[in-house]
Fold:
Amino acid sequence: MPRIRTLRSRPSGRIALGSLLVAPLLLVAAGCGYGSKAVESGDPKAVGGKKVDGLDQVKVGYFPNVTHATPLVGLRSGGQIPKELGGTKVKTQVFNAGPSAIEALNAKAVDMTWVGPSPSINGYVKSGGKNLRIVAGATSGGASLVVNPKKIHSLEDLKGKKIATPQLGNTQDVALLHYLKTKGIKVDPETGQGATSVLRQDNKEIPTTFQQGGIDGAWVPEPTASNLVSKGGKVLLNEKKLWKGGKFVTTNLVVRQDFLKKHPDAVEAVLRGSVKTNAWIRSHPDAAKKYINEALRRDAGKPLPGKVLDAAFAQIDVTDDPLAATLRKQADHASSVGLLKKADLSGIYDLTPLNRVLKSEGRPAVTDAGLGRK
Structure:
């Protein structure tokens, strides 16, 4: 199966006030573009019956990461999401990093996508609060700073080293830049140059660069973190240790505002499927790992070794709660390192449909931490 087409972002000068300093992504001339690929052979067949909201298809995006367990399990043929959509087909796209997914959302190449908090914030701010809403959570945790133990022995050894992140402005990029700042280490947020060098590189390329000695470590999501450990790396810092109770949003589900307005039943159907999928994953972890690995084989080109998959899966918590209070803090982190001007995030959430689904399942409502649609 062909590997995912990737696009790297490059610094392109300062962007206007109120925008994240995220370099624009080029569109590929062929395929679906936006650093993604259509998963034609992996698209689940419509279950049949009535089409939700009269739609022929719903276009959804996700990443081939363990932190995207919800779509990796729930979107497959026979999965809960296609079941809830009935006669409406699911059309999927796989992305390599969040900024690419937001580009596709803005261009209406996808209607909904699972994506990290920093790109969600970025997209919302750059559109003046008009392009997306966060409608659910998906994953907490699953991100770590992994280093070459021969080169870096402690957190005090980061100066003068080269550390990779998946993409300029993505969730782990913001986390690394903010952490370095708290340690008094200055880095230019655009170029990644400073007392510590930050290299932006695709998740799938980072392990090779690490083995070749091109980087000294990486702040990355799962399974890349566990993959680096399997290649001799050491977890220097699990990001869970930086958050109260070890909880912080890693992946949430966003939807275009115009799609949510026109097709609320379709959005709610996806949310029902997501909630049921997350409950199933929690109850059947071993079976869930098998589904995840089959999805990674198809979407990323090969499955994970058993030990790597077990280690990666152990680091995540699937959750319907978007952990909105932690997203607010992540926005503050982006502001503190110069990636984002202080911005009003009011209205970034619309959790009304999710809370209807949770109520129908006998579950308590989740909060938007004051950032909900007015």
The CA atoms of residues 67 and 139 lie 6 Å apart. The radius of gyration is 19 Å. DSSP finds 13 helices and twelve strands in the chain.
